[in-house]
Each structure stands twice: as C-alpha cells, then as structure tokens.
Design goal:
By secondary structure, the chain is α+β, with helices and mostly antiparallel strands. It has helices at 2-13, 19-36, 45-56, 61-72, 103-116, 144-153, 177-187, 210-224, and strands at 80-87, 93-100, 120-122, 131-140, 160-164, 167-172, 195-202, 229-234. A four-stranded antiparallel β-sheet has the order 3-1-2-8. Helix 2 packs antiparallel against helix 3 (45-56) and helix 2 packs parallel to helix 4 (61-72).
C-alpha cells in the first residue's frame, strides 16, 4: 500500500506550469492526439479523454477547438515528444519531457539551462533506468473490492492498489492506463478522476541542502521557463 502513496507524492511534486503554459501544452497535446488518430472527439477515445481532462483543468473551449481544427488541415506545426535526461547538483537527476516543433531549438534551450548551473545533459537511459514509468489514477465513492475484481477480470494486474481514506489509488503500467479507465467508466459512467497521470517516478529520492538545493531550484525555474517543456520529473525530495 505504501508504494502507491510514495508514487502519488512523486506525482504531486512534478513541476507545474503557469496557466498560460498549461493552455499551450494542452493545445499541443490535443493537436498531436488528433493528428495521430481521427480528429473527431467521439471517434477518437484518446482525444476524447484528453479533451475531458483539459476541460477539468479549465482550458478554454476555443483553445481546444483550434487545436483540433489545426489537426484537420494540412501543414502547420508538426509536434513531437522529445525527452531529455540530465544530472543536477549533488546526486540529483532529472527527466524533462518536451513537446516541440523544432528539436534543435528545444535541445539548445534545455542544454543552456543545465550549463547555467555548470551541469550537463546525459545520454538516453543515463538517468531513466532509476525511474519507473507508471500511470496513476485515483477515484472516490467506488467499492474497492468490486474495482479490484473487475481489473483482474480484464487481465489488468495493478503495480499497486490502495485505499487511502476512501480514495482508491490505482498504479499500473502505462499500457494498461486506458484499460483501467474502461473498467472504471463501465462501473460508473460519471466517474471523476482525482488523479490521472502518466510519468516517470524515481525509485529512490534524495535530499539536497545548502548550495546544492539552491542550484537545483534555479535549474527547475530555468527549465519551467522554456515553453516547450511540459513535464519535469526528478529524484529530489522538496518537502
């Protein structure tokens, strides 16, 4: 049970974005989902769920509609997901997820952020082997035993399954993310997700002090300021 709690704390500690950046990130994600599949909400389940999530975070409808309309046309941006791994001060490590239409621009800006604190990017898997790629969902007002049994009937084996004061927290492999949603929405078509995330979560966390902590916080700030950066995951305990 403790594993879900630790993973959930890691999710909460994932660096957030300001509202304007949040809107921009959702616009890119929605465009990408619509471009890869059918650009129609009702016939593209991934797009539908992404739009539902965006609306819950109060992303304006015009931003959502513009992103879908753009995916229906020819030309325009061609976004792709690019992930970088880096080494921060002390024993800190970071994984930076970006959505970009210009990889050279993005890698230059991410590298410059690390250079400013005299740290560096790593090669692929130089950091990520110490992280777990997981999906986490949580819901309330559902029967724990029923949910668990339905997951097993669908061949889904949770990495962790916990009930925290009436809130069911389900941790699974990302390949099972949408399968879990299918189960939950079959049990309750109006289910509300209190948590609905996929991300990289550190197997072990560290604590930084003094100058190392100051440099790490500066690095986070520099990375947050990059428009193409959508998520930052790290192994530092900031509590």
């Amino acid at each position: 049970m403790g594993r879900a709690y630790e993973v959930r704390k890691a999710s909460i500690q994932k660096t957030g974005a300001l509202k304007a950046k949040l809107y921009s990130n959702y616009a890119k994600e929605i465009y990408l989902a619509a471009k890869k599949g059918t650009p129609e909400i009702e016939s593209n389940i991934l797009l539908k769920r992404l739009v539902d999530k965006a609306k819950k975070e109060q992303v304006p409808n015009d931003i959502i509609n513009r992103a879908i309309d753009k995916a229906k046309g020819n030309g325009g941006e061609d976004y792709e997901v690019v992930t970088y791994e880096g080494f921060g001060p002390g024993a800190s490590t970071l994984i930076i997820r970006t959505l970009t239409d210009n990889v050279n621009r993005t890698v230059g800006m991410v590298r410059a952020a690390f250079n400013k604190i005299h740290k560096s990017l790593g090669v692929t898997n130089s950091v990520s082997y110490n992280y777990d790629y997981l999906a986490i969902l949580s819901v309330k007002d559902m029967d724990e035993e029923t949910v668990f049994n339905e997951l097993l009937l669908e061949g889904i084996e949770p990495v962790d399954f916990a009930n925290e004061e009436g809130e069911i927290v389900i941790t699974v492999k990302p390949t099972d993310h949408n399968k879990v949603k299918d189960v939950l929405e079959k049990l309750n078509p109006n289910v509300t997700y209190l948590l609905d995330e996929e991300g990289m979560y550190p197997k072990d966390k560290i604590t930084l002090d003094g100058e190392d902590k100051e440099l790490f916080m500066r690095l986070l700030s520099l990375l947050e300021d990059i428009d193409d950066v959508t998520d930052i995951y790290h192994n530092v305990n900031l509590e």
